[in-house]
## 1
Amino acid sequence: MSQRTRIRRLPEKTRTQRAELDAILDAALVAHVGIVDDGQPYVLPMACARDGDRLLIHGSTGSRTMRLMAAGAPVCVTVTHLDALVLARSAFNSSMNYRSAMILGTASPVTDDLAALRILTEHLLPGRWEKLRPPTRKELAATSVVALPLTQWSVKVSDGPPDDEPEDLTANVWAGLVPLETTFGAPVAAPDLSPDAPGPSWP
């Protein structure tokens, strides 16, 4: 961990094991990508997938963010999973439980767009790549993939109960956790789906 990635606010929530970073990234479908263009910061949600020691991010070749990253502009990527609302006996001590990661660095274009797109597709839509038609040359030309090395990162996890002030413990106010979950719903067929198309095997 460097000075750039050292957690200063509530440092006791810092996690330093690489496996914890990998778990957060592997559970993520979206990363928020921050970049500066002509002095103006921009933060965009983008699809992501971890590939070993790098994070793959993809977008349109016409995207300003993708062009800047491919050109070597510094980038900050964050991923957050919200696990619970923490209801304390005061507004000040009410909070959230979460797992979050921040990655700093410089991205670079991948050398094999097709392989990278397969990794991204299988991460977002497991088992779908082999069932889909291959991307056309036009589609590949319109799609850009960059890789951000996982060398400068920090992980922060909040997972405890409410931390109330001693004088608040006698207040007649409910305190505890309200868990939050992201789940997949039942698939909804496209209106133009062929009636003999096989049912989905995902999720």
## 2
Amino acid sequence: SLPAIALGMDPKDKNIMREKPRDPNEGIFANGGLARTVLYGAIITLAVLLAYFTCGFINGATTLSEMKALFTNNEDVLHQAQTMAFTTLALSELFHMLGMSTGDRSALNVFKQKNVMMLIAFVAGFVLQLLVIEVGVVRSIFSTANLSGTQWFITALLSVIPVISHEIIVAVKKILNKSNKSVLAE
């Protein structure tokens, strides 16, 4: 809920009046909204699945059947895999929020705009996730496992995939727009 509030409080783009008006009858999935939703949903899903299966891999399972056997026979490893997947989902949503707040610009604009609520939401979400994993009483309430340093590192790497994907998409769009403008100018 904090990311949603932060996105709602995001300052409007200074160049918003230079854009042509949108059709008031168009839906929220117009202008590529559905494609973006599906793409980022798939990216986050892939990151979560990678976190889950990576836990099996770092515990010696290299095939799906070995992972199934490992997770079936070792409840602690299964619990760690579930916690890695859950944490990757939570953190990747926080990183995704940074990219979505800027739309077609770099996520670094969040920091340039000094959107305090966005930073508060990010830090609060991250701290809450740490509490759920690292504080024993809270961990028992949420039935999560304590993660090792390696598991945290892997989870963190996988969690930044949405914002990295956003940056790549923004860069490719800029390159394509420049090449389209140069073709039109000729």
## 3
Amino acid sequence: IAELVAVGTEILLGNIVNTNSAYLSEKCAQLGLSVYYESVVGDNRDRMKAVIASALDRSDVVILSGGLGPTEDDLTKEVCAEVMGLPLSEDPHSRKRIERYMKEYKKNHPDRRVTSNNYKQAQVPEGAIVLDNHNGTAPGLILEENGKRMILLPGPPNELHPLFEQQVKPYLQKLSPEIFYSRTVKLCGIGESKAAAMIQDMIDAQTNPTIAPYAKTGEVHLRVTARAKDEQEGKKLVKPVIRELKKRFGEMVYTTKEERTLEEAVVKLLKKNKMSITCAESCTGGLLAGRIVNVAGASSVFQTGYVTYANQAKRRLLGVKKSTLREFGAVSTQTAKEMASGALAAAKADVAVSITGIAGPDGGTARKPVGLVYIGCSVQGHTIAQEYRFSGNREKIRDNAVSAALTLTRRCILENCSKKE
């Protein structure tokens, strides 16, 4: 049984978001460790001591993040040592590492003074396993006492993640007799309720592995998890379930890789078919283009995009007809189609996708309410447009519109091109 404790008053005040606990929870689950409790405590010695003592009493492994820095309010190491009854002493190896780091820092920042409190981070509890931090000065620590273990990690995620992957994960793998191996099947173009209905028989009959559906913005993720003695056995258990899910959902499955996003799948498909893409956006104001260019290597498929918020811009940049806007309005199937075909011609691209709608909170009418969005897609001259009705606030409507546009783009490419994913 593992327990997570995030340390820092800045988390309690909402100054920073506690992403460390989400990351560590997922990693613990993959390692076969059960996480029953997660806590956040501020930089207060007494409250920290009470939280840590309670966690240590009810859990086998307590993983703490934050509070290992050089300042007076960085108390995690000191409090943990006190709870376990371990004295602090300087670790010569950590001292040398900090000295090297400080020397390099001073060379690169001659105008800044290196303060001696940095060496506080070389003080470690007696008998601790010291974990070298290659991305910062504060080392990680593992404390073992009477069958209990405390793992102390630095707070910055760019220090915590590599430290966990490289040194903590191998340590924890030795503690658990079994692991949880997971794969995620990512779907687009289908809602959570319909997806769940299509696999209800599999869910009813499941034992090991299990399937859990999760609703995301414009997507559904199906996580398949197997309990196994090792990763090899986990892969063997999960493989037939993944195969069956692919069979049932077909082209709605855009990836089975946890790290791959929908925009990455679209960019990959464009590259495979040697196609370029452009965007013509109104209510989303460049969000779609932003999602595409977030993908490394997107420059090979994306050259330019258009944000045509005003009707005049739609006419001038995309060639949307004045009569179309007058007769059908900016938010219409006809305008979405003309935006897509106009962008295709202007950018000389192979694929164009357009978005026009009412994101709110104002501007809606009984005939065209807030959340009404039209998305057009033109692939090599073949143009379609679809109507969508999204709910929620302005941000949610715009995010849903972008996800729907990526889904429609992917579908149109698959339907019009020979090279599938």
